[in-house]
Specification:
This protein is mainly alpha-helical and 124 residues long. The protein contains three helices and two strands, in the order αββαα. α2 (41-76) crosses α3. It is elongated. The chain starts with 12 loop residues before the first helix and ends with a helix. The protein binds zinc ion. Zinc ion is lined by residues 25, 27-28, 31, 39-40, 42-43.
Length: 124
């Protein structure tokens, strides 16, 4: 190695700092991550779980809404509102919400891609 007394071409502390490829996770500040990552795997997992919990809660609320609507519809039609009709309404509402959520899950990314393509095409 050729060390020059003037200081050019020498490694300095500032450069060594940037060569360090890890940094603390800005969210939990307990784990280190690669410089090109935003948060650590642990925090990514946590965010994913929170999202799943939120989605489940939302689906549950949707099922309740559809269920009460179905139940009212059943009563207004004069159909049996007994235990059988009750469980039928529950199964139906879960199915309706499940299918709707599945379709949204499938179509929203496609619509998003199409919308992005449209915006980009308009910019040109
Ligand atoms: Zn973290």
């Amino acid at each position: 190695m050729d060390i020059q007394v003037e200081g050019s071409n020498n490694r300095v502390a500032g450069r060594d700092y940037y060569e360090n490829q890890i940094k603390p996770c800005p969210k939990c500040e307990q784990r280190v991550i690669d410089r090109d990552k935003n948060i650590c795997n642990h925090c990514t997992q946590q965010e994913r779980e929170q999202f799943a919990h939120g989605a489940m809660l939302l689906l549950g609320i949707c099922v309740l809404f559809v269920f009460s609507w179905l139940h009212d519809w059943r009563i207004s039609r004069g159909l049996q509102p007994g235990l059988e009709g009750f469980s039928e309404s529950i199964v139906l509402s879960v199915m309706i919400v499940g299918v709707t959520a599945g379709m949204l899950w499938f179509f929203v990314p496609i619509i998003w891609e199409v919308a992005k393509a449209c915006i980009q095409a308009r910019r040109r």
